[in-house]
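Incident log, structure service

09:12 report received: a user says their structure output differs between two submissions of the same chain.
09:20 pulled the input from the user's history:
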Amino acid sequence: MMALALQWQLQLPLPLQARPPAVAAAHRRQRRLLFPVRRVPPLRARCCASAAEAADAGKAQAAARRAYPYDEIEQRWQRHWEEHRTFRTPDIGEGLDTSKPKCYILDMFPYPSGAGLHVGHPLGYTATDILSRFKRMKGFNVLHPMGWDAFGLPAEQYAIETGTHPKITTERNIDRFRTQLKSLGFSYDWDREISTTEPSYYKWTQWIFLQLLKRGLAYQAEVPVNWCPALGTVLANEEVVDGVSERGGYPVIRKPMRQWMLRITSYADRLLEDLNDLDWPESIKEMQRNWIGRSKGAELEFSAVDKEGHDLGAKLLVYTTRPDTIFGATYLVVAPEHVLLSSLTSEEQREHVEEYKELAARKSELERTDLQKEKTGVFSGSYAKNPATGEIIPIWVADYVLGSYGTGAIMAVPAHDSRDHEFAMQYELPIIKVVSPPNGNCDPTEAYADDGIMINSCNSSSGLDINGMLSKDAARKVIEWLESNGYGKKKVNYKLRDWLFARQRYWGEPFPVVYHDDTNEMVPLSENELPLTLPELDDFTPTGTGEPPLTKATDWVRTIDPLSKKPARRETSTMPQWAGSCWYYLRFMDPKNSNILVDKAKERYWGPVDIYVGGAEHSVLHLLYARFWHKVLYDMGLVSTKEPFKCPINQGLILGEIEYSAYRDNEGRLVSADSNSSLIDCYQEKVPADKVTKVGDHYVLKDGPNIRLNARAYKMSKSRGNVINPDDVVSEYGADSLRLYEMFMGPLRDSKTWSTGGIEGVHRFLGRTWRLIVGPPLPDGSYKDGTVTTEDEPTLDQLRVLHKCIARVTEEIHETRFNTAISAMMEFVNAAYKWETEPKSVIESFVLLLSPFAPHLAEELWFRLGRPQSLAYEQFPEAKSEYLEESKLVLPVQINGKTRGTILVDKSCSEDDAFQIAASDEKLSKYLAEKGIRKRIYVPGRILNVILDQQKART
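09:34 re-ran on a clean worker, output below:
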């Protein structure tokens, strides 16, 4: 609410009559200069004007609309920073003072797309830039680099569509991104720029892979993958949406393929347990815990039998977190990709099972595990024997069980698992209740999934009796029984699966291995042969056979093993895009080193990353993969910390401007969005923003206030046509306005809706700041040199306003509450406009406060204040406590014990002074004038109570 109020203040400046006379007069002159009355020439005269005159007129009008000359200022200071390499961080041994504290601030590696930046991208970049500039001014050595995660599918798809080599596309996209980022004034150390596509970089990605291979953490296996025939590649789960590829919308199937895998599960316990020592947002840690998904339970065997109970010679291994419910297992479920399914399928059911497997292969894992979707399955034709009950139970195939989790088979307990219950109800399978709630109350139509007291859980033949036991005690007893009878064992399981680390693409890091022609033996390259570079290739189209595009580079594929001199062939799959982004934070510490991954002294000084900002979509996999690689490097003694990132921050999305739509029925009549009638048969049409007005908390048509509209903001995308190009915003309002607006929109971590009207407000604020310090424009629209500040000593009130602002801004930057820091600076400017003079010392401190947020404007003001050097390394102002204490307070005044008003008094105010102030107060004087006073009760700083003589009061 404060931010909104301040924005309103920007639109409605303080009335002139409320300002000191000298200031009011100055502002009247300023308004006449800024907003002169224009007489529009007749249409004929305007039509006859020359093109040059029209151009000049256009420039004059554009200048008049500008709140300050940001275009000149921003270009000047961007050139200055580049020419002087202002933000270069020297290396250890090259002038870096390692006695100073360090702060490593990093943005998540951006992918440089052909579309360039939209206004959502600079949100996180602006936040890290504010923090970087703040930390420099606080005396820290700051590492704030930028680079490019530039391998991957989009560049390859563009190459296929246009015939342009991905390298050309990637370099062009990087140039565009770099230009856009520089236009926003971000204080990156461009000397450290890296790209994952440079051989000097991916040499070390390949080197890390070899280390993983040596330690048995990289291996090959036949696994079910998301195969997209149209794209000709394997896709990660997050690249598949509703059964189609995220890019292009092509069908995706599940298909077994031999792939490179990384054994991240070997580090599952450490990845989980080390979260406890991290000062991360709890939400991110919880997402990681859920993805790792450690659970304790039992692994047990069910013997496969036919309908008559004859043993089929197969043992079906299942994993359960609830061994206590074994008596309630009324059927088994195997995943469609289970290795034993073919042998478990009867001839009568084979056609149905094969058809079901084909349908399941078209679904992503996310679709299959969606709790809301209807459960489907098919009977295998085989049965199993429940070892606890001796009962013969059917084996079903269902896609809600995944082959990649646990054993790919479960014992279904429909009375106590919601998915199993839904499936059992769908196919009329038995439901046996074996757990009773402690209070005995539960809904008989739903599964009871909590702990309780065991019932219906005894069998004399098997020798297992857990009736009457608590669930946890029963689970322990069942595990003991399983182990003693050879039916199973205690087991810890994970949802986390080994990392599928291969893609059937051209544009990626080549694997540094070869295969002998005669034996098919895989042999790693020696480290001195790195980097293994990609061959030049003109045809990037999929082969159609599942073979990667690199198979077309026959001269590259055919090779000789350097060690054995045997004929060999290279691996034709490439590494996934994740590979290069797992360790780039280390390379930024030592980007030019061609001998080792990272210098140990540099890593010890700069590591770990102190602040890591990026989108919430990377909170799980990217952070998990990077942590895994870091822990491997830690075990090798190459890094000095167990974790790579100290404090990750997820920024929210910036959504497109609100879109308005109206409903019309089949006859074309408008229907209000809150209508009681059904809107299902209505169609929607877009409504222009100028036809809309807001009433309360909803939007209506201006010409039809009874018609409520549907109002919604969407994620920016080219398909919706709601993308805002930052270049356009910078051109019209300046980079500082864009930076300031994105921080002022709301808390960094929240999603926000773009509003062009909002950026106009902060642009006006920067213009007011400019004119406050520089003064009004001259008649020709230019500004005089220097500032209007004076050498006067600041008053006590001015110092209090300044130091209150310093304290607020400092605290809010520390807490990444940038919107409220800006609000504090707006309050300062509002207060400063009321001053008779502007002491230079006060204004200098304010300019330093402003500089992390609006660096171009601040640099220009600093220069005009007579400071020839950049303010980038000036000391950030410190708030002094003596100016933060309020000298006055509000004192309640009571008459005969009843509060009648308040007065403003000094903290040290005496009783007599307080009484005199009350007596002269317009509201209180009527109670005290010519009245007899029996006594006064005064508690300094708390209250003044005047007891009147009632006798005299009546007369």
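09:41 both user submissions now match this output. Likely a transient worker issue. Closing.
09:42 reviewer note: The first strand starts at residue 102 and ends at 107. Residues 1-55, 57-64 have pLDDT under 50 and may be disordered.
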